[in-house]
Write a structure and sequence with these properties.
The protein is α/β, with parallel strands linked by helices. It is about 35% helix and about 15% strand. The termini are far apart.
């Protein structure tokens, strides 16, 4: 076998969350950073024929999830899977690609370059050895691993009958949380999310912030991200979801967050240009910290800008 390794179900590194599902893989071939199997994981899946809106929302959600100490899991397929992996890498989040083909037979071939980057910075997994060809039935089998590794699955754009819905329903059977992004009901790829909301109790979301709010009772998600992140954009403690009457010391705001919060009014919308003018901070720093302030319940978006939630 070419440049790959093997773990078995009784190995210490094998994820306990995966071991508990129905019919877990007895062994997994891998390339890359096997220690990522100890990370808390969130899966993002969807159609191979995504729209520009689907691409935008994946990138938005992943960017907002990047304040968490997690890995993004997907299936390396065309479309939403590819976008999710790339967005994770762009935001310095580790990503795990689960193949429906042999560990040394990347499918689709157009993702060979992406797979090489994931191998360096993330992890590639398959229960199929070496050059095993991609056969139709192997992809639904693969999907149980995607959901099994993850505490939650986010479905973005999926037809009513698709592999993404299989993944979501497997996640439901595995007692995972399911999130989905509503779309234009005239589009075929909006029917899958609608069905998940109607039949599977999926949470409708429009942002990573909403995912965090729902999962906030799991403190392990909110470990500080240490590697390669500016201290100014690292949340200093577990985000508080409920709005308080005043800022209390337990928020422990960074200097940048204090500057940004001071520019916000409860009664008048503050726009990015105004906040930048007053704080002299870069737009990327402002937006990252505004997301954190939103998660903490200190600010909220309104009419294209932001207002404070507290006196």
């Amino acid at each position: 076998m070419n440049n790959s390794w093997l773990i078995k179900i009784d190995d210490d590194i094998y994820p306990s969350i995966l071991r508990e599902i129905y019919n877990p893989p007895c062994e997994l071939f891998y390339k890359g950073k096997i220690e990522l199997l100890k990370k808390t994981c969130i899966a993002i899946v969807g159609t191979r024929r995504n729209t520009d809106y689907g691409e935008f929302i994946v990138e938005k959600i992943v960017e907002e999830l990047a304040i968490l100490d997690i890995a993004i899991v997907s299936g390396l397929a065309k479309g939403i899977d590819t976008i999710a992996h790339k967005a994770a890498l762009k935001n310095n989040l580790p990503t795990i690609a689960v193949l429906g083909s042999g560990i040394n037979n990347i499918y689709p071939k157009s993702n060979n370059g992406l797979a090489a980057e994931i191998e360096k910075k993330g992890l590639i997994l398959s229960e199929y050895e070496d050059l095993t060809e991609p056969i139709d039935f192997q992809f639904p089998q693969r999907n149980r691993i995607i959901s099994g590794l993850s505490i939650a699955v986010i479905v973005i754009e999926a037809p009513e009958k698709s592999g993404s819905l299989i993944t979501a329903k497997l996640a439901l059977d595995q007692n995972r949380e399911i999130f989905t992004v509503p779309g234009d009901i005239s589009r075929e790829t909006s029917l899958g999310p609608l069905k998940l909301m109607q039949e599977c109790g999926a949470y409708p979301i429009s942002s990573g912030k909403e995912v965090i709010e729902i999962l906030h009772k799991q403190p392990s998600l909110f470990k500080k991200k240490i590697a390669e992140r500016s201290p100014e954009i690292i949340p200093q403690n577990i985000p508080k979801i409920h709005i308080q009457k005043q800022i209390k010391p337990h928020y422990n705001l960074t200097q940048a967050q204090q500057k940004i919060f001071a520019t916000l009014s409860k009664y008048k919308v503050s726009y990015l240009e105004k906040i930048q003018s007053k704080t002299k901070l870069e737009p990327s720093i402002i937006l990252s910290n505004l997301s954190i302030l939103e998660i903490q319940g200190l600010a909220k978006s309104a009419y294209g800008g932001y207002v404070r939630c507290l006196h």
